[in-house]
Amino acid sequence: MTTTSSSNVVLDINNLVVGLGRKADAHRIIDDLSLQVREGETLCLVGESGSGKSVTSLTTMGLLQKGTLVPSGGSVKLVGEELLTATDRRLRQLRATRMAMIFQEPMTALNPVVPVGRQIDEVLRAHTDLDSRARRRKILAMMEHVRLPDVERIFSSYPHRLSGGQRQRIMIAMALVLEPKLLIADEPTTALDVTTQKQILTLIRDLQRDHGTAVLFITHDMGVVAEIADRVAVMRHGRLVETGQLQDVLRNPTMEYTRNLLSAVPSLVPRAPRPETKEPVVLEANELSKVYRERSLYGKAREVAAASNVTLTLRKGRTLGIVGESGSGKSTVARCIVRLIDPTSGGVRLVGREISDLSRRLLQPHRQKIQIIFQDPYRSLNPRVTVGESIAEGPVNYGMPRKDALARARELLELVHLPPDAISRYPHQFSGGQRQRIAIARALALDPDVLVADEAVSALDVSVQAQVLNLLDEIQRRLGIALLFITHDLRVAAQICDDVAVMQRGRVVEQGPAAEVLTNPQQAYTRALLEAAPGRGWDFANFRPVSEGIVATA
Amino acid sequence: MLGYLLRRILAAVPVMGVVALFVFLLLRLTPGDPAAILAGDNATPEQLDRIRTSLGLNEPIYIQFYTWVAKLLHGDLGVSLISNKPILEMIGPRLEPSISVALATIVLSILVAVPLGVIAAWKHGTWIDRCVMGLSVLGFSVPVFVIGYVLIQVFAIDLRWVPVQGFKSISAGFGPFFERIILPTCTLSFIYVALIARMTRASMLDVLGEDYVRTARAKGIGETGVLLRHALRNAAVPVITVIGSGFALLISGVVVTESVFNLPGIGRLTVDAVLARDYPVIQAMILLTSGIYVAVNLLIDLAYTLLDPRIRY
Questions:
Q1: Annotation: CATH topology of B90-307
Q2: What is the ipTM of this complex?
Q3: Domains in chain A, start-ordered, CATH in brackets?
């Protein structure tokens, strides 16, 4: 990465304070923040959720919710012009022309009822005097510039016809069509698959090089930082913790918090393999398939194989990972195995008993042997039921007296390192990490033989993620439970799985011990996935590039 | 699109079939002899016999149903027991007042309620929002006839701006027509405005929190553009739904309003028929209102597909 020596400061934030509400003693969401982004430079703003990254970007754009979050001190200057005191009218003029922003969720950031071409066109209509033919030419050129295929067709398509990557390209085209000086990218690749992420990161880099744009890139992902940053600024609780050149921050972080943040990033190098065991097989999937039929009224049904011929084996006390991109069928397989959905064909053997063809009623006694934890702890717990009731509900359903079930819930909360008084509280009183612990306790309440974790740590910050992974590991060692771990994150898979199965378009393309599959992949798809993993060259936890580590241990 | 339209119209057939069956059975399953019910208390045996034969009551019930439906399909709704006139002829001239008031109500309500709801959502939590919501509660809670009488008292009796009651066909000139339907329209609009404004506000509040609204603002578009082009169109589907289901309210409201304003519409006809136990007319009115309701819902579903490209047809 090149260091820009140019001193043209595009964005200059000085001693910014943003408070919650208008009162002078309001809680400070941003507290005395200062940072600069220069022309042609990418500053990565990193930090965990709630650190104030997004508020910083929204303050700059003047998009804070009026009356809720109020900038109360400091200054934000865009190419020398103060933004905090600018009128709404002036801010509107500056948006898209001098500063532009792309957001995290390409799926929701575009208006679903307006063709995407017209959405880009709005920018031109609002800020230029071009006639409609000139505008259309400019838009099509920009769409080609962001490497969209078949631009004429996409121009008149609605967002739901496009993939996530294509939508994010549209967002980028929309942001850059008027060549703003500053591009704010707020977690623009977080919702995308790794291969798409890699393309989008490359695209942003290339466009920036061509146009000398200053980029404020907000992310929580150290891998992405290593790929794209020139400089890094670390935020925590609304304050700037540390800032410096990329290499300096990754190699020699000066602050304790930065060190911890980096140490929590799971390594892509698989952990040392555990010895093979002769423990009994608790879960087997045999040529499991799930086909969705889209019926049309005129009889020609379209078939989509969400999973085809998936065969997996999981032994007691072991962890099997299913990895792959979105739409690869990971979750479908998990849901078939737990029988939340019914497989179209194939078998599932749970602790020696075939369960794929059992009726709902006959399945009921077997349900307690396999439990599942979901991705989003904010939505997977019933908000109106206390934590204790949520955990006790399962055992009570299986005939345990309520009093015993609640006592068991208390034990489980202790097991997942939550205070016993959590039992009478409600989910909204807990953080995301704590909620996921509750979800784990709920799943364990039935003493399952198999625990299925469907992207169970994907929504969590790295430090919390590390804690939850450690917790799962500890529980596995104490209870000898088998884990089926579904994730799109190869780093997480490398750190927790004994074996992995790589899925693509409903099929398992490669399967084997994690240490082999992730270091010496045999299939092109697995190799592509590994190569697309952001920051694969860095061993963050050891503050050095992977290559140096190999030299050091050789 | 055309295929979808045809499919939806076909789907409406069984619905209307069930309605027709219900209407048919209404008379047959009422305790007692239908002929006796139809003829009234003072009928002679000869009269009863004549009614039985003319209605085909001596035939098996499924044949009765078949002949009744066959007649319906030929536009024969039967004959009123009171006036002995064909029902179709009775309904014809009464459609204009009812349809005029209903359409005017829908147009007026949408023109008033949607902007109110949008502004309330935009100025969420301010006094403007509270005023709109207060009005909405008022509109819901005050009965239609009370509003009607208050409006008559103020605008017709005290101010003498418009006639108290009655109806003039539009063929007699727009002025007289307009000044006679304006009060009934306003009366009927109250509850409808309340309903639509509330729904618009709620739906707009949801949409204003969406990411694409933030995107629109980030593009530097003015607030009007953000509200109308980006928010309102997305907020429209639930609003349209409410407009459609509120149509049932409108139909019952028409009955009351027509009585208050002495309009010679189908609402009045229905009330008179019920009071006189004029069963064939009641049957015809049920069929008519159900038919209108089904047609309105069909239109609403078509509107969805125009508003939201994700809804497939």
A1: MetI-like fold (1.10.3720)
A2: 0.78
A3: 1-98+181-267+533-554 (3.40.50.300), 106-179 (no CATH), 281-527 (3.40.50.300)
